[in-house]
Write a structure and sequence with these properties.
Distance between the termini: 23 Å
CATH topology of the domain at 16-271 and 387-443: FAD/NAD(P)-binding domain
Structural class: alpha/beta
Bound molecules: succinic acid
Oligomer: single chain
Number of strands: 24
Helix content: 25-40%
Number of helices: 14
Length: about 625
Amino acid sequence: MSTTGIRLLAPAPGWAHEADVVVVGSGVAGLTVALRCAAQGAKVTVVTKAHLDDGSTRWAQGGIAAALGEGDTPAQHLDDTLVAGAGLCDEEAVRVLVTEGPDAVRRLMATGAHFDTSETTGEILLTREGGHHRRRIAHAGGDATGAEISRALIEAVREAGVPRAEGQGGVPHAEGQGGVPHAEGQGRIELIENALVLDLLTDAAGNTAGVTLHVMGEGQRDGVGSVRARAVVLATGGMGQVFSATTNPSVSTGDGVALALRAGAEVSDLEFVQFHPTVLFLGADAEGQQPLVSEAVRGEGAHLVDADGVRFMQGQHELAELAPRDIVAKGITRRMQETGAEHMYLDGRHFGAEMWSKRFPTILAACRAHGIDPVTEPIPVAPAAHYASGGVRTDLRGRTTVPGLYACGEVACTGVHGANRLASNSLLEGLVFAERIAADIAAHPAAPGAPVIPAPSRFPLLPSEARYGIQRIMTRGAGVLRSAASLEEAAEALHRMYADAAELLERDGKTAEPCVETWEASNLCLVARVLVEAARRREETRGCHWREDRPERDDATWRRHIVATLDPPASHGLRPGGAVPAAPATLTIRTTDTADFAPGPLPGGPHPTRPGTEQQR
Ligand code: SIN
């Protein structure tokens, strides 16, 4: 049973599987945890929502930041990260990132990832991106860094002897239930693709005992089932789909954060959504995943200009187009407001055809596919949702506030990013903290008791079409530019959506049919509501949280983190006679703020908190 008693409505699990560790997600964070845990002898099950290579990692263009270049040091990388984070980074977490980062990248290379190197010296080529004072970003395939990292990790996972768990739709079955043999002392990795993880299973003492999940397809393990495990690692990526236009793939629906909230975990800094400044503009109504135009294009010398060719970032920041991402996104948005334009332009015509095709083949192809040729014309660009700087709150070992539940990568809030992630720090964070999580799991081998059988859920599901309503509400009310009024409107609209569904369930006993689309819509609605509550509470402008009604940064009051949890509803026992109690018309989102990042010894630990506010919504 999840610790809040709040769960997604789903059929009872019809099949069960056992592992030591369940890793949810198959990007750089998830696969690195899986490989390290298997190397330590654990039996690992990787659950991924689509195919192994369908997560966010493969879309990463620019690269991976680490102090690898001559003259660069972790201390300089730390300084740039702290400045970008606008006073809210956890300095200890950043120190871990920048000092352990270079070796983690070298281990990634030893795993098989090939970065671009100089034809003459053979050394790794490093580029610049926003907020970095020096060339520090390793890249691969020009602008296909994530794809190369993903390829290398998937290959390593397959070499580790990966059987696919039986009965997944659309993928070949493993030979037999046990999978392929594995080397002595080496664990093994099983794979469940096309599977949406629903909720955490816990034992009677509240320890993580596994997950429930739904496998899409036919076979022995189709439909809802459970995987029992002593550790669950959320590596589910981001929540970009909460907005209409995003660089994130369609699978990025905030599933990990929503699961963690229902499980009673703390989430932090959710108001800090990073809007990437230069996303290919495909029209004001464009929805879903939009093509990214990497910051590395600016790093190599492309300029941002308005329709009259004016370089409007000059004079706004010493780094002009290469200022931290939030500053460039604001600069573009302001210029759009001043000129009434729907987008600005990125001009890289001076690169010439050869550089475009060698250095930025992915971006060149994406632009040309949409009828724009960057060799001969400036690229129309506008900001779009890109990265969740906040997420499930963890300590330096990736532990959340629920025993046995870990979070890694974009879904996590380790304290590294503060109010605004420094460009290309995310792949590095996934790598470094994945290794720490694997070490912590190996150091704590205790097994949980049997999972508590959950009572039937009494919480409504939202209809699948709610996804688009949520995206429009969030884009209008909690996008690049926010205010108390816009956030209030968004909060009301999201609350109405949930309350209507709860009323329908209470009055007519009806709710949307449990399926992937309705689970995703319900997850999106939950994370959107928590995000909006955090954004309402943060009454200042800081990093990527931009309040037009509170334009100044306020260190005296707000050098603090907003931590949110879901409160259990007042009663969640069964009604006499075994009937399921009424659907609660409200969900209680509690937000508190804390000066310190560290969640302390887990679970709990002393947090210097100010009194919480409860939002009965
Ligand atoms: C980019 O290439 O601009 C994106 C890299 C990142 O998000 O760190």
